[in-house]
Design a protein that fits this description.
The chain is of the alpha+beta class and about 260 residues long. The protein has helices at about 20-30, 50-70, 75-80, 120-130, 150-160, 175-180, 190-205, 215-225, 240-260; strands at about 1-5, 10-15, 35-40, 40-45, 85-90, 100-110, 110-115, 135-140, 140-145, 165, 170-175. It has a six-stranded mixed beta sheet. A hairpin with a 2-residue loop joins strand 1 (about 1-5) and strand 2 (about 10-15).
């Protein structure tokens, strides 16, 4: 483990098991709605109402760090206590992603369940953070969410579009029955979750709700095509050009599919 204080933030660099320390998990459970999940770690924003939990976390962090590096714990405890208002960012090194399958069930147009193939506390925490006050109930392997608003569906579509979280690779499974219950005007984009999944991700690329109007799709397409046209980065090297070219091609692909579906 390595701890660095920089730009009014505490950077913790450790292994994937760092997140599984009991005191670390307690800290995140308390700050679940203040946490941003990154591909290679998490960022916990400061919450003035959780000062006691933050101080306890810093105590445990200083002891753990001092023990791991054979250093004087009191010195680092004093240093970290000065950072009570700092954000906490935990970064974990690259590792092969652990695959997690998540099945989605729609009990009605207003209630959806996420069911994990195996217990995964960090994926449940991630889903809780994504849906926040919309969560109705949860266990180690499932989460029930209120889908009774356009905001809830927008969050769902955004969540389904993200497949890499921490060191997990997420595979969502849903079918035409799920889409039919959740979206009453769903007309079908093909059979199986792969075809449906692709269309939902196209809408997410355009940052539009499923079933958006053709005019909205055209307007968003023009904005994105202009923003990501490869000509904009011709002077920034091959890496930037390739990145913009891939994005531009994906936008073209998404536009053709969404225009046909609408």
């Amino acid at each position: 483990m390595r701890v660095v204080l920089r730009n009014n933030a505490i950077f913790i660099q450790g292994t994937s098991t760092t997140l599984e320390e009991s005191w670390m998990e307690e800290f995140f459970d308390h700050h679940i709605h203040d946490t941003l999940f990154l591909d290679n770690g998490v960022l916990v924003l400061n919450n003035e109402n959780s000062a006691n939990q933050k101080e306890e976390f810093l105590e445990n962090l200083s002891e753990c760090y001092a023990k791991a590096n054979d250093l004087s714990s009191p010195f680092y405890r004093r240093s970290l206590k000065k950072c009570r208002t700092a954000a906490v960012r935990i970064e974990i090194p690259y590792r092969d992603n652990e695959k997690v399958s998540i099945k989605l069930y729609a009990f009605s147009s207003t209630r959806v369940a996420f069911v994990l193939s195996k217990p995964s506390p960090w994926i449940i925490r991630y889903l809780k953070q994504q849906f926040s006050s919309l969560v109705l109930s949860s266990t180690d392997t499932s989460l029930h969410v209120d889908m009774g608003s356009s905001l809830a569906k927008a969050r769902l579509e955004k969540t389904l579009n993200r497949r890499e979280v921490l060191h997990f690779s997420l595979n969502y499974e849903y079918d035409n029955e799920f889409m039919g219950k959740l979206y009453g005007n769903y007309r079908g984009w093909g059979f199986g979750s792969e075809a449906i999944d692709k269309m939902i991700r196209y809408y997410a690329i355009f940052e539009l709700p499923v079933g958006a109007k053709v005019d909205d799709i055209k307007k968003r397409y023009r904005e994105l095509a202009k923003r990501y046209h490869p000509d904009r980065v011709q002077t920034k090297g091959s890496r930037a050009i390739n990145k913009y070219t891939e994005k531009f091609q994906l936008i073209q692909e998404a536009y053709c599919a969404l225009r046909a579906a609408s």
